[in-house]
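Hi team,

Below is the intake form for ABC transporter ATP-binding protein from Rhizobium jaguaris. Please confirm the fields before the structure is written into the shared record.

FORM ID: S-0412
PROTEIN: ABC transporter ATP-binding protein
ORGANISM: Rhizobium jaguaris
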Amino acid sequence: MTTKISFQNVSKSFELTSQNAFVALQNLNLDIEDGEFITVVGPSGCGKSTAMNIAAGLTAPSSGQVLVDDVTVRGPGPERGVIFQQYALFPWLTVRENVEFGLKIAGLPKEERRRIADHFIALVGLTDFSDSLPKTLSGGMKQRCAIARAYAVNPKILLMDEPFGALDALTRVQLQDQLLTMWSKERRTVMFITHDVDEAVYLASRVVVMAARPGRLYKIIPVDLPFPRTEEVRLSPEFAELRNQVWRAVYHPASH
Ligand SMILES: Nc1ncnc2c1ncn2[C@@H]1O[C@H](COP(=O)(O)OP(=O)(O)OP(=O)(O)O)[C@@H](O)[C@H]1O
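The structure came back. Fields below:
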């Protein structure tokens, strides 16, 4: 197995006053393997988004470094697709135009852009809405569009910060399944932040649990559940046991 993303002693402090700094992330060491799906959970303020933003190249670490394919991250790059909780679609572009956007920037010819966009729009189940504007879509549909757009440019890494956080429970479960289906076909490396312990266990091959004040890695819990993950897996005693284990690590870190 090869390491795709490597957090090496990554710390981040924010200056509050000239005398006072807040440590958002302390000495994070974490290797994510090529093609792995990891989820990151932890109490509010434990530095999950900070860690992801550093990997995305949107925030610089105060010390340490993140390597992607053995190269230090110094800014955003096309091999890393980022998806946030807020859909961040261009409101004046249709679903297809949104999905084609990155391909256009990359200079792909029109027919190829269209073929790739249509493929990913179909994968997320939005074919009938290809010509719709974002404002006419539900929250779940907007997020599907954002996922198709991120996938279309073929990033080897997907960094997802609570992408399903704003969605209702049913849409959320549907998008989890769609994401896993796409992941199993096109093995990207995924780092996925969530507050939802069930979601964390359902999606991941490893759950990374962080703790707060200062933000740090607390525990890594391997998820030895079979893929594809199905309703049967979700209802199994093994799933329940893992969920309890993650829950205890997140909410009662000192008690075990
Ligand atoms: N620009 C900033 N200036 C000062 N403090 C910041 C800044 N960005 C983040 N922080 C602080 O760093 C800590 C970690 O923030 P971060 O957003 O990474 O946490 P999180 O685990 O993603 O939280 P949540 O689950 O609530 O989204 C928080 O206490 C936050 O207030």
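SUMMARY LINE: The chain is about 35% helix and 25% strand.

Thanks, M.
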